[in-house]
Amino acid sequence: MTTPTYKHFNVTYPPEHQYVAHVEINRPEKLNAFFEEMWLELSSIFNTLSTSPSVRSIILSGAGPRAFTAGLDVKAASSPSGLLGPSPLDPARKALHMRRHILSFQSCISAIESCEKPVIVVAHGISLGLAIDISVAADIRVCSADVRFAVKEVDIGLAADIGTLTRLPKVVGQFGWVKEVALTGREFGAAEAERVGFVNRVFGSKEEAVAGALELAGLIARKSPVAVVGTKELLNYSRDHTVEEGLRYTTVWNSAMVQTKDVQAALLSGIEKRKPTFEKL
Q1: Residue 60: burial class (beta carbons within 10 Å; 0-12, 13-18, 19+)
Q2: What angle do CA 15, 190, 35 make, to 5 degrees?
Q3: What is the pTM of this model?
Q4: Chief localization class (predicted)?
Q5: Same domain, 23 and 153
Q6: What is the CATH number of the domain that holds 267?
Q7: What is the CATH number for 130?
Q8: Which domain holds residue 235?
């Protein structure tokens, strides 16, 4: 398929895994740290992949051996034109501008969560601050044994505001642990991340983690794309609503979606003992 080119990301389609897209943060010389142009580009990528009929699952990793991402590029953000730079505006007007900026930043990272297709994050090496925001917006997280996670914002005088404090407690279900790592800014490694349920799997190296994520994404991509999109949508909805509300939404959703030809294709393949094939979305 024809792929737009991006300045700070590589987007590829591994030939051995049909319908899988691999998004790679590509600023390794700066430890894949983000500045505004990058998060706007990230949003554009995931909004495009969300509706692409040739994509059924996505993995997100970082280029280079040292970092998934070191988080926000504080130097860029503190420049005169940056998010944290000086401003001649009075405090109220500056606050309004800052609010709009934060909302835009949040929306860009939330594009991962709102993407129709499942997203698997592959963390390795330095994975700080914004790395956690990105990871908890994804559906599945894997990492390499050398990963160094931290909710780092308290160390630069901020409360994390791009999704970590909202999503991380729901991901791990351990509010006390989340408060500890968010209030101290301490690092935690692969074993602890797996123990609390922050990551699904730990691999020996970055290369093994990427290969494992691609294998998992490939398995998802072989399922009915209608069923996969619906499963992600219903799980995310039910996470944020009561059981009764989740059941009601599922009823409405499946009233339409169970009419797909994918159900018949899946049932026939089981009877005929063959792998099913499904149309593009």
Answers
A1: buried
A2: 65
A3: 0.93
A4: other
A5: yes
A6: 1.10.12.10
A7: 3.90.226.10
A8: 225-271
| C-alpha distance from residue 136 to each of 25, 53, 139, 170, 198 (Å) | 17, 25, 7, 9, 8
Could you count the other beta carbons within 10 Å of the beta carbon of residue 224?
Answer: 20
Tell whether 37 and 66 lie within a shared domain: yes
My answer on whether 211 and 248 are in the same domain is no
Q: DSSP H helical segments within the chain, as ranges?
A: 36-50, 74-77, 91-114, 130-137, 164-172, 175-184, 190-195, 206-221, 225-239, 243-257, 261-271
**pLDDT, tens only, 159-196:** 999 999 999 999 999 999 999 999 999 999 999 999 99
Residue 217 has pLDDT above 70, yes or no: yes
Q: Are 43 and 176 in the same domain?
A: yes
**For residue 175, which amino acid is it?**
F
- What's the rounded Cα separation, in Å, for the pair 192 and 174? 13
Domain contains 258: yes
Of the candidates 6, 1, 35, which has an alpha carbon nearest to the alpha carbon of residue 21?
1
pLDDT per residue as tens digits for the range 89-100: 888 988 898 899
